[in-house]
């Protein structure tokens, strides 16, 4: 390797306009210039790219940069061309190029114009590209996003596993591997798989002390997000969702609530994605609602909020995504909404994958769940996960440190857990240690005769959750260690041995409650204003009497509870209450909003801010499909099958449509499954005898003569005809 510039600081100023290096950048650059293998672990925003871009400009020949995403490569090439007078200084070589563009790239490479060539791992493994690159004077190989090499990394790419072979086929030169998120296990995988075990490792601190970490229960999550963004209008924010559909729905909901927001996901065409990304960078829009497809290589320094609508699949993903906040050193707020049901949903997705992937995925999910549920300092927990010790007990910049939980001494429980790890010969992960403590005999424990251990079932005075929490605390505080190569297997540390010999105090916080945080519509709702609720209840009876229908056919109690909590004073606001919708608001709403407006004025009530949250008209594809299919008189079984729904799920969807005020005609189906007298008998019950329209009461009334499904279908017919 021939160095054309001897002073990295002068070259830094010349090529990039910076006067000084950040952190260990200068040392990393010098190490690579000397032709030595290098491994860089540097958090998002730390300046990883410059560690290979500057050496590439200083050395003769072409540096090959392996990168996983076309968009990321394009951003970096555009940036490099901005620093140079020649466009040929940097190129991409991937499947997105036209034949004409490929000819130009090859020409610039052969003429020695190109100093940085960005390739996807798939492209580097192609024989024709290997032959081309053999002809060149390659200065070094840079492997960006190197965590993709490891199955334990959050973006595993099988093609990365073949890089060592491809590099050897081209001609071995110095290698620099770079990543922003790597646990000790992933770091070990990267070094082994690339064959650079002797590389010098440069590891920057993962701590970003300007970032505030908070996890909230996932209750009324859309309302919380809208309120948060309205209170911080004008500030840049990214909202991450797991599904494309949620991205679309939430971005529209933000827009109708006066927030400048755009969606971003892989399902949008390339031009739209670029347009939305540019609008965010140029501040034409404040908020991007995105899947994890967004953000790789985005260098916007003033993102003030990164909000996770759903808990990510791993802490690596979480760290990388949250790392996009506050890159300028200013305010950075990381708000994550968590429900255990999200973890269960992700586990179901994993069940379709190969067994090896399932095991890894479940372990990563377990870590993400542990982080969300822990009551210890979130910064300390996160840094420990990446192999870094954070000494202070209170960082002051996470929800757990600002609002600490009550501590209690758990030294006896810690001693029992350590004895269990030792008694089980230090060969189990946390879940199996917990199973031993609570006496849960799994197939794995049976093969090891674990039920004969003296610790078997000794921890039944605490639940499973308590023991998981205690083990997490013991690991982070250094009493237990996780074996890197046998990911998750627990070993006693020296501190653990010392504690067993001479137990001391072990203070542990209570866990926060996150179970059942998801609002599923079945939870008990408490009205904020009892007096208004009673008035609305009386009005419902009065309107029902005038219309000749039962009160629940006007508005169900859950809708009245919401009205007495949010005080809607217009029909537009009323139709946002659950179970109301446009049809019901138009048919019954006028006297209700009039009463509420009068009540608000007379009692000088300040209506809660979240009242201004406007929801989208429910025009989802599924709703339209169900209405059209019943109009065409398709059998309900066929409708359910076509949409991959169970009959129970289909009934729920139909009830949502009807309860909100839209008619569904299902007479054709009912006539096939019930005789005319039965339909009439149930119909009359819902009209004359049922006070609240409850299915359980109807089932009891008819003494099981009709199934729950039949009763629900007649109730749908009844509400469609008399209430909508």
Provide the CATH superfamily of the largest domain: P-loop containing nucleotide triphosphate hydrolases
Shape: globular
Q: How many strand units? A: 17
Overall SS class: alpha/beta
CATH T-level topology of the largest domain = Rossmann fold
What is the correct CATH architecture of the largest domain?
3-Layer(aba) Sandwich
Count of separate DSSP helical elements: 34
Sheet-strand content, in percent, reads 5-15%
In round numbers, the mean pLDDT is 84
Rg, alpha carbons: 31 Å
Whole-number total of structural domains:
5
Please mark out the parts with pLDDT under 50 across 5 or more consecutive residues, or reply none.
Answer: 515-527
Q: Roughly what percent helix? A: 40-55%
Give the biggest beta sheet. Answer: 7 strands, parallel
- CATH class (first level) name of the largest domain: Alpha Beta
Kindly report how far apart the N and C termini lie: 79 Å
Largest sheet: spatial strand order: 3-4-2-5-6-1-7
Task: Provide a descriptive summary of the structure in words.
The chain has 34 helices and 17 strands. The chain has a seven-stranded parallel beta sheet with strand order 3-4-2-5-6-1-7, sandwiched between helices. Strand 5 (138-143), helix 8 (163-170) and strand 6 (175-179) form a beta-alpha-beta unit. It starts with 7 loop residues before the first helix and ends with a helix. It is globular. Helix 23 crosses helix 27. The chain is α/β, with parallel strands linked by helices. It has five domains: 8-203, P-loop containing nucleotide triphosphate hydrolases (Rossmann fold, 3-Layer(aba) Sandwich); 211-347 and 364-388, Rossmann fold (3-Layer(aba) Sandwich), CATH 3.40.50.300; 405-509, Winged helix-like DNA-binding domain superfamily/Winged helix DNA-binding domain (Arc Repressor Mutant, subunit A), CATH 1.10.10.10; 530-612, HRDC domain (DNA polymerase, domain 1, Orthogonal Bundle), CATH 1.10.150.80; 621-722, Arc Repressor Mutant, subunit A (Orthogonal Bundle). Helix content is 48%, strand content 11%. The model is unreliable at 515-527 (pLDDT under 50).
């Amino acid at each position: 390797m021939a160095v054309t510039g001897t002073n990295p600081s002068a070259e830094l100023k010349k090529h990039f306009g910076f006067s000084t290096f950040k952190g260990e950048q200068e040392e990393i650059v010098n190490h690579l210039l000397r032709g030595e293998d290098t491994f860089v672990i540097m958090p998002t925003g730390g300046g990883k790219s410059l560690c290979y871009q500057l050496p590439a400009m200083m050395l003769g020949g072409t540096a090959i940069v392996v990168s996983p995403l076309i968009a990321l490569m394009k951003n970096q090439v555009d940036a490099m061309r901005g620093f140079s007078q020649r466009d040929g200084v940097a190129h991409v070589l991937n499947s997105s190029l036209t034949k004409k563009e490929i000819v130009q790239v090859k020409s610039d490479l052969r003429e020695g114009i190109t100093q940085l060539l960005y390739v996807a791992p798939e492209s580097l493994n192609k024989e024709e590209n290997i032959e081309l690159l053999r002809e060149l004077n390659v200065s070094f190989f840079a492997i960006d996003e190197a965590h993709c090499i490891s199955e334990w990394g959050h973006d595993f790419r099988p093609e990365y596993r073949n890089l060592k072979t491809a590099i050897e086929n081209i001609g071995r030169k110095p290698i620099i591997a770079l990543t922003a998120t790597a646990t000790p296990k992933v770091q070990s995988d990267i070094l082994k798989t690339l064959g650079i075990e002797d590389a010098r490792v440069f590891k920057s601190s993962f701590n970003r002390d300007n970032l505030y970490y908070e996890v909230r229960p996932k209750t009324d999550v859309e309302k919380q997000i809208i309120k948060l963004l309205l209170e911080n209008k004008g500030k840049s924010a990214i909202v991450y969702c797991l599904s494309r559909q949620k991205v679309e729905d939430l971005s529209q909901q933000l827009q109708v609530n006066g927030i400048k927001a755009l969606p971003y996901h892989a399902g949008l065409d390339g031009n739209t994605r670029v347009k939305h990304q540019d609008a965010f960078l140029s501040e034409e829009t404040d908020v991007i609602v995105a899947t994890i497809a967004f953000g790789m290589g985005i260098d916007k320094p003033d993102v003030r909020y990164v909000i996770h609508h759903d808990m990510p699949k791993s802490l690596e993903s979480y760290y990388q995504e949250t790392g996009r906040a506050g890159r300028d050193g200013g305010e950075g707020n990381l708000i994550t909404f968590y429900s255990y049901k999200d973890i269960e949903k992700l586990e179901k997705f994993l069940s379709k994958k190969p067994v090896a992937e399932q095991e890894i995925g479940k372990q990563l999910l377990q870590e993400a769940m542990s982080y969300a549920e822990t009551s210890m300092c979130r910064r300390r927990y996160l840094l420990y996960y990446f192999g870094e010790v954070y000494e202070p007990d209170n960082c002051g910049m996470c929800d757990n440190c600002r609002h600490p939980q009550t501590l209690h001494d758990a030294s006896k429980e810690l001693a029992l857990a350590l004895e269990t790890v030792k008694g089980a010969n230090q060969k189990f992960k946390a879940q199996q240690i917990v199973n031993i403590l609570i006496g849960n005999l799994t197939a794995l424990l049976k093969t090891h005769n674990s039920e004969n251990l003296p610790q078997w079932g000794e921890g039944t005075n605490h639940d499973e959750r308590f023991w998981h929490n205690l083990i997490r605390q013991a690991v982070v505080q250094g009493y237990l260690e996780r074996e890197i190569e046998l990911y998750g297997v627990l070993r006693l540390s020296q501190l653990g041995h010392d504690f067993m010999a001479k137990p001391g105090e072990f203070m542990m916080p209570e866990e926060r409650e996150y179970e059942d945080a998801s609002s599923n519509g079945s939870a008990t709702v408490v009205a904020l204003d009892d007096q208004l609720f009673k008035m609305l209840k009386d009005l419902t009876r009065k309107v029902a009497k005038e219309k000749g229908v039962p009160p629940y056919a006007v508005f169900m109690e859950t809708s009245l509870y919401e009205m007495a909590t949010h005080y809607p004073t217009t029909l537009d606001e009323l139709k946002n209450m659950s179970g109301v919708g446009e049809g019901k608001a138009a048919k019954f709403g006028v006297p209700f909003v009039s009463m509420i407006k009068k009540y608000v004025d007379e009692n000088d009530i300040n209506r809660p801010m979240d009242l201004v949250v406007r929801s989208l008209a429910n025009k989802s594809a599924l709703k339209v499909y169900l209405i059209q299919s019943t109009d065409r008189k398709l059998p309900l079984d066929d409708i359910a099958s076509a949409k991959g729904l169970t009959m129970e799920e289909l009934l729920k969807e139909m009830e949502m449509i009807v309860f909100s005020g839209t008619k569904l005609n299902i007479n054709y189906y009912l006539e096939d499954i019930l005789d005319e007298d039965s339909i009439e008998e149930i119909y009359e019950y819902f009209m004359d005898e049922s006070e609240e329209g409850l299915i359980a009461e109807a089932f009891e009334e008819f003494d099981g003569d009709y199934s729950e499904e039949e009763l629900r279908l007649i109730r749908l017919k009844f509400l469609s005809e008399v209430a909508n």
